[in-house]
Write a sequence for this structure.
């Protein structure tokens, strides 16, 4: 039977950072739902909390308060080990600075998340790595090291790495931030294709052109989800 | 000059700015430099410049070699000495002497004073001048000259309270008055630990050819300026050929393959300390290299933090030479500070080292801060500075500085290079630590094996005390000697706790050995056939029982074997098998020379090691009854329940009752004598163990430093891995597997070096044993453990990285 439950369901999510007796409310009561197969863009000005939200969605960080259901399971209070396992199986990360490991080849980088899964046969890993690299058009560079690739190629490899584990959702944090416009477009095209093939994508970007690629655009301001009109008003108020 | 001063100022500022770094580097280098200074100061004192000898490089000691008998003796006969002394073109002065002793009464008790009986040129050969009076003249050596003595500084202080009018005063030696004619400097001590010197007064008969093979004296020569040892040896060979041509030598010289040669005095006096010191010198060099590798690693780590600074300097026009000079200046200043500490601590550590060396090996050596030591320390400090600093300095200046400026000094490729260089240092450190651990293990196993070698007797609870006959009555009267020895043994046997007592001369593993050729009745020597030869020992009836030496066949001596009865001899199994391989030696007759009567073989006893547990090169042993010999003294042995102090008192009393004019010269447990024979080996084990421990500690610090550096560099990577699903255990495994990889690489290099070192050392140390495998296994275990200890904290730190934090920093 088809699973009709939202892939991600967040209610009243709050994140407070404490430094030297100063409380910084990075997120304040965020509500968010992402359906399977959806392509969501999160945008907003610098410091609005979009990366924090993405980290919590990606189980890299934990909320101070609120509820987070991933695939219908509560995940906000899991321990490190459980969160690692879910990250490995359900989430694929694409970082702004690619975060490929310089000492590993393209193949080894893509294979890396699969090596953290117990019981996966080497042949299965190989098949998945090849398939992922073929999807991003980098299969011919699998013996190369990251330093031998251009920025755009490195980001393609990073996408392949995110795809290799067949995650439920791809989380992309400013995936074009370190790329020139041509390579940025190419990566966005790649994400669009992946979405067409059925991948769920949640992307953080501050560039409205790239946000426009998504099915839905979520705007964040001062740790809250706001409508586009509200965001424009707030920005206009700041400029005044 | 201006820029040099600027570099110094900047280097000092850097040292002040990073006190932790400065202290770590200085202490690490000080350890390495201090250890080297310590060992070098001992090497300098022992191997290069013995105290009290003027230009020791020009002093040589004569030896004789019986090639066909496999005998090499550091002593010569009077005719040998005369031959060497006659080489006037080569030799400035030659002297002969032997170690002797005199009994003196001190506080109502007879005491033995160690003395040397020497020819008048003795002091001239060593370049030693008295602080008071004079040394011997030709007149002092005339047959009826009044007895005179030159006393040592110590005896002058002890006996005469350092009185400046001592010259002309008398001292009673062996109940005869000797006039003091001079006092020697405190640093002159040749032969070792002598309290006084008396003239030898050689009679013309001593120079007779009959005396040619009667080696019992030490002969020393001072070479003329510019003459080498090789030239002296060539002269000695020429002299031998001349004697052969003139027919001076009898057939025995040819049959035995006799020759005479000289060795350097420094080599002679270093004796059994020579090889251990060379090994230790090599070992401390390795420790210095390990310390240097550690410091180089620290410099590399710091270069990461300062790479941007140097990029800016380069951008502002600093040349590579200038930047290298600045970095080298920093390392030179740090190494210089370490060298000062090393100089301050080194000689003290050297004295401590000599203190740890068994007394019989280390007596008479003085460790002082001499110019050579200072020069050496400065040299190794500079070497350490260059080794530690030049690599990182060049690496830093060769880098593409524009990359540093663009990337803020963070480049994945550059850090990988740095990591590779640091890995190489750590692998080198581990390899050297492995080599030291393996060496320590090897010598430890060999020492254990040697300690288990059966010397042929049971040394447990056996005490030894030597008495050298003094006074005309005893020295010249064989019957009186026999009576004295018998009385002392009887007195001893009656003492509390003593199970059995006997006398022997010389005692196995004691200070002297006796050997001679012999003939077997009915077996004439063929042309060019080597003379039969063996060690000799004189013993009393109870000797076998005290020593628990097994009687294999026939009988041992009884109280019936006296001066006037049939001469008898007992041989050991080795001699029996060699000369009577298929027959019974008992009843056969042998004699030492044609002037002595034939002695009948009455028994065969078990083999006994004479002087070394390491190798047995003895030709066998002939035992003669002490009662049938005219000797110099006796060593009284007793199996007792009491300790050495008690035995000394018992022996003193037994001797006093037998003859109040006699004194105990030395007393020791037989186990101690055995242990002394392994003193050199034990010294290596102790020192190698200590330095291997130090190397292991430095390696742990090195591995820790590297792994900490690498994990810090890889924090972002750890964050990525965790973001991709790595568990904390995966990260710990990743870090520890790096440690294991470096350790394994180092251990493989170390194992190869260890095997090579073993193959070399085997030639220098007899019975090094087959402990190489077990040593490698133990060293491997120790280093894996060290690696785990060093890697654990950084691994745990890496595993507790917050992936969010790590990625944010990235």
């Amino acid at each position: 039977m088809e699973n009709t439950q939202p892939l991600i369901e967040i209610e009243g999510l709050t994140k407070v950072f404490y430094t030297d007796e100063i409380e910084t409310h990075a997120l304040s009561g965020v509500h968010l739902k992402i359906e399977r197969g959806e392509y969501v863009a999160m945008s907003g000005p610098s410091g609005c909390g979009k990366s924090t939200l993405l980290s919590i969605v990606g189980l890299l960080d934990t909320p101070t308060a609120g509820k987070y259901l991933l695939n219908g399971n509560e995940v906000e209070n899991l321990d490190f080990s459980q969160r690692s396992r879910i990250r490995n199986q359900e989430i694929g990360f694409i970082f702004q600075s690619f975060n490929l490991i310089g000492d590993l080849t393209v193949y080894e980088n893509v294979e890396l998340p699969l090596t953290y899964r117990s019981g996966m046969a080497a042949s299965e890993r190989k098949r998945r790595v090849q398939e992922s690299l073929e999807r991003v058009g980098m299969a011919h560079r699998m013996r190369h090291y990251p330093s031998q690739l251009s920025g755009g190629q490195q980001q393609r490899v990073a996408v392949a790495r995110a795809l290799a584990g067949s995650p439920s959702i791809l989380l992309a944090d400013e995936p074009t931030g370190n790329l020139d416009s041509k390579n940025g477009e190419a990566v966005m095209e790649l994400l669009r294709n992946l979405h067409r093939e059925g991948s769920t994508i949640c992307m953080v970007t501050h560039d409205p052109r790239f946000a426009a690629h998504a099915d839905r655009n979520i705007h964040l301001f001062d740790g809250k989800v706001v409508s586009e009109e509200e965001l424009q008003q707030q920005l206009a108020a700041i400029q005044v | 000059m201006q820029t040099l001063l600027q570099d110094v100022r900047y280097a000092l500022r850097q040292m002040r700015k990073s006190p932790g770094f400065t202290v770590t580097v200085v202490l690490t280098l000080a350890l390495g430099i201090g250890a080297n200074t310590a060992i070098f100061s001992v090497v300098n004192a022992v191997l290069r410049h013995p105290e009290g000898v003027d230009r020791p490089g020009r002093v040589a000691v004569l030896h004789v070699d019986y090639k066909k008998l496999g005998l090499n003796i550091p002593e010569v006969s009077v005719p040998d000495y005369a031959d060497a002394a006659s080489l006037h073109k080569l030799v400035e002065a030659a002297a002969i002497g032997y170690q002797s002793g005199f009994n003196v009464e001190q506080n109502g008790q007879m005491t033995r004073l160690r003395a040397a009986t020497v020819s008048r040129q003795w002091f001239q050969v060593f370049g030693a001048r008295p602080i008071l009076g004079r040394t011997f003249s030709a007149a002092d050596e005339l047959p009826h000259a009044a007895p005179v003595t030159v006393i040592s500084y110590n005896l002058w202080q002890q006996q005469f309270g350092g009185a400046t009018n001592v010259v002309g005063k008398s001292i009673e030696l062996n109940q005869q008055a000797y006039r003091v004619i001079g006092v020697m400097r405190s640093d002159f001590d040749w032969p070792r630990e002598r309290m006084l010197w008396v003239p030898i007064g050689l009679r013309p008969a001593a120079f007779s050819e009959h005396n040619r093979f009667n080696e019992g004296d030490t002969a020393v020569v001072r070479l003329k300026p510019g003459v080498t040892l090789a030239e002296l040896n060539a002269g000695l060979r020429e002299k031998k050929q001349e004697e052969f041509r003139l027919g001076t030598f009898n057939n025995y010289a040819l049959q035995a393959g006799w020759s005479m040669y000289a060795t350097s005095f420094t080599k002679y006096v270093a004796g059994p300390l020579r090889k251990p010191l060379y090994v230790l010198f090599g070992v401390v060099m390795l420790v210095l290299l390990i310390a240097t590798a550690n410091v180089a690693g620290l410099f590399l780590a710091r270069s990461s933090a300062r790479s941007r600074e140097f990029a800016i300097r380069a951008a502002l026009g600093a040349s590579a030479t200038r930047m290298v000079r600045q970095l080298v200046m920093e390392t030179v200043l740090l190494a210089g500070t370490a060298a000062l500490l090393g100089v301050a601590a080194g000689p003290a550590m050297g004295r401590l080292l000599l203190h740890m060396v068994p007394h019989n090996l280390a007596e008479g050596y003085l460790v002082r801060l001499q110019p050579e030591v200072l020069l050496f320390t400065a040299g190794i400090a500079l070497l350490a500075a260059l080794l530690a600093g030049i690599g990182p300095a060049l690496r830093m200046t060769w880098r593409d500085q524009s990359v540093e400026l663009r990337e803020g000094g963070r480049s994945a490729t550059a850090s990988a290079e740095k990591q590779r260089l640091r890995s190489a240092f750590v692998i080198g450190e581990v390899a050297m630590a492995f080599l030291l651990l393996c060496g320590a293990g090897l010598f430890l196993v060999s020492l254990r094996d040697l300690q288990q070698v059966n010397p042929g007797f049971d040394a447990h609870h056996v005490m030894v005390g030597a008495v050298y006959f003094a006074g005309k009555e005893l020295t010249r009267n064989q019957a009186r000697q026999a009576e004295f020895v018998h009385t002392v043994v009887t007195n001893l046997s009656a003492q509390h706790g003593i199970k059995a007592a006997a006398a022997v001369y010389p005692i196995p593993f004691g200070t002297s050995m006796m050997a001679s050729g012999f003939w077997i009745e009915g077996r004439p020597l063929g042309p060019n056939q080597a003379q039969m030869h063996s060690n000799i020992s004189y013993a009393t009836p109870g000797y076998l029982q005290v020593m628990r030496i097994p009687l294999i066949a026939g009988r041992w001596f009884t109280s019936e074997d006296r001066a006037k009865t049939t001469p008898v001899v007992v041989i050991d199994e080795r001699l029996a098998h060699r000369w009577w391989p298929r027959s019974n030696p008992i009843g056969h007759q042998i004699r030492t020379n044609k002037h002595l009567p034939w002695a009948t073989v009455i028994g065969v006893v078990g083999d006994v090691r004479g002087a070394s547990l390491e190798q047995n090169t003895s030709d066998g042993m002939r035992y003669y009854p002490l009662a049938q010999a005219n000797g110099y003294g006796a060593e009284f042995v007793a199996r007792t329940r009491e300790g050495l102090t008690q035995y000394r008192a018992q022996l003193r009393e037994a001797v006093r009752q037998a003859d109040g004019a006699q004194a105990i010269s030395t007393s020791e447990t037989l186990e101690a004598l055995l242990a002394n024979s392994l003193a050199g080996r034990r010294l290596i084990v102790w020192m190698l163990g200590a330095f291997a421990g130090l190397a292991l500690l430095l390696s742990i610090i090195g591995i820790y430093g590297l792994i900490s550096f690498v994990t810090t560099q890889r924090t972002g990577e750890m964050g990525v891995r965790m973001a991709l699903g790595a568990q904390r255990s995966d990260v710990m495994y990743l870090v520890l597997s790096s440690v294991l990889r470096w350790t394994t690489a180092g251990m493989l290099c170390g194992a190869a070096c260890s095997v090579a070192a073993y193959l070399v050392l085997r030639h220098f140390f007899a019975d090094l044993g087959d402990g190489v495998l077990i040593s490698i296994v133990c060293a491997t275990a120790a280093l894996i453990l060290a690696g785990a200890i060093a890697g654990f904290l950084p691994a745990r730190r890496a595993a507790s990285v917050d992936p969010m934090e790590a990625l944010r920093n990235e």
About this structure: The first helix of chain B runs from residue 2 to 17. The radius of gyration of chain B is 34 Å. DSSP finds 25 helices and 22 strands in chain B. Residues 401-415 of chain B have pLDDT under 50 and may be disordered.
